[in-house]
What does this fold into?
Amino acid sequence: MLGSDEKRRRTLAAAIPDDLLISEVWCVCRSWRDGIAGAAFVHRHLELSRSSPPSVLAIPREVDPHDAYATTSGEISFHRLLLPPPEQALGTIGTELIFEKAWPEGITRLIIPTHRDGLVAIATATNHRVFVCNPATREFVALPLGSHNELLHLARCWSCRYFYRNFGEVSFDEATGEWSQDCTVGHEVFTLGAGDSWEATECPPHAAGVQRPVCTRQAFYWHAVEEPLLIWFGLRDRTFAVVPRPPAGWSPHDDMADLDGRLCNAHAGAEAAAFHVWLADDRPELQWSLQFRIELLYPPDDPDIIHYMRPVISVGSKMLLAVVGKCSYLFWGTMTNEAQQEAVDLHHEVQYERPDGSKCMSQSQDGS
It folds into this structure.
């Protein structure tokens, strides 16, 4: 028979989340800490991780192409795309509803999501509101509003956000033959669990472009408006620097990603239907190497149709790639650029489950 104190202790222990238990063990048990930090444990963990079928988080949004910025939705849902192993054809992709969150105030249908360490940050298209979600715990919160941004549609936030204090007129310098624009850019950081407001940092050396940034190697990387610059913002010392880009020129359709802790850049080549995928090494200074040259499965009929390619995950010598444009699809690319498998159309072949069990398709999708 358990006493009341013993019952109380067991009840309290059962209510403590597993992650807090692990955190406590990390702090007080040196042998356990040394064990999970050892090379053998890490190697085995990576082996088991690779043996599991890959999955991707998707946030489907139905966007009106004629009114993308203004329309809102009263809910947002998070789904897991269930992918077969890379050696198999993608075929039909299954989906699993993780959870749906109602937001009566409305969330713009056009969103800019990104992720890091299990958290998903969602910047909205037409206001200053930024959301953070933990799909594992089904937590979804709105961050406090940051500083006013003169260009709402260029607001970006991934715990760091830049904004325009003013945005002047475009002028042409006849002496240099170059266009310029008078603008003042600010930058803020929000640290989860360390307060309820954004912290201003030093000003960026250049205005950031419309391409999304990426967080990896203890830093944020931004494409600058002035090509071909890449802006680095260190999370430790909170300073800016300009770092090398891949030696392949620049395109407004370039995109970046974090792949296994390495900075990845997908560059739209001069060819209308080809992308070059570059990876940076692990040294403090960025040195790039070309890993893939990808021919689009469905080249655009019209070269003016905007396409960009987003690296999603890498497994061995293969990389899952998402292409967004006139057609939006997923496919596996290889380092040898061998014959590619049939792609999956994200708009017409992937069905998402609603809480009531019904299915829907997304006309336009943002995923991370």
